[in-house]
Write the C-alpha cells for this entry.
Amino acid sequence: MKDKKITRKISQGVYVLTTKNAGCIVDAVSLISASDNPIISVSVMKTNFTNEAMKQNDIFALSVIGKNSNGEIIKTFGYNSMRDINKFENVNTTEIEDIKVINDSLGYMVCEKIDEIDAETHTLFLGKLIHADKFSDEEELTYSYFQNHKEDYIKIKTETGKTAWKCKVCGYIYYGEELPENYKCPICGVSSDYFEKI
Ligand SMILES: Cc1cc2nc3c(=O)[nH]c(=O)nc-3n(C[C@H](O)[C@H](O)[C@H](O)COP(=O)(O)O)c2cc1C
C-alpha cells in the first residue's frame, strides 16, 4: 500500500452514538439505503464499552454534531469511557424510545438494530430508521474539518516537563519517553506510526 491516508478522503461526519446507558463519538457512519425505510450502519470498536451495550440493546441513536456544537460533547463522549465516568451527567438530553439523544446537536436518527457484522477490530451495526428529527439547519461537523481544527474543539493541553506523544488522528496524548511495543491508540485504535513526539 503506497499511502493509506487516501482513506481519509472518504467523507464522514461526527456523531454521538447512544444506546441504553452508553454512548461514544463515532465518524464511521453510512447511509446504506435512502429509500422509504433508510438503513444506517455504524462501526464500533470492540474495545469500546458502547460496543458491549450495542450488542445488548435493540435500539440506538445518532445525534449529529454541528460545526458550532460545544466541543465538550466531543471531549466527554470521544475521549472518555463510560467505564470510568457517567458521560450523561452534564449533558442535556431528550429520551426517544428510552435512548438519550443530545440536545446540542443538529438532530437525531433513532434506529432499530437489524444486524451485526463482525469486522475484525470493529462490529458493524445496521439499523432501520424509526424516528428522526432536525433541530437546526446549521452546517454539520465533518471528520476532516474536526481533524484540521481539533485543538479548537477539544483544547488539548499537555503537562509541562513530561515527554508526550500525540496521536495525529484523534489528538490523544500518551505520556512516556517511548511508546510501548505494538502500542495502539486507546481512542481511535491506530498504530504507533501515527504518533508524534511533542
Ligand atoms: C472524532 C472521533 C471519531 C471517532 N470515531 C469512532 C468510530 O467511528 N467508532 C468507534 O468505535 N470509536 C470512535 N471514536 C472513539 C470513541 O468515541 C472513544 O473510544 C470513546 O472513548 C469510547 O467510549 P466508551 O468506552 O464509553 O464506548 C472516535 C473518537 C473521536 C474523537
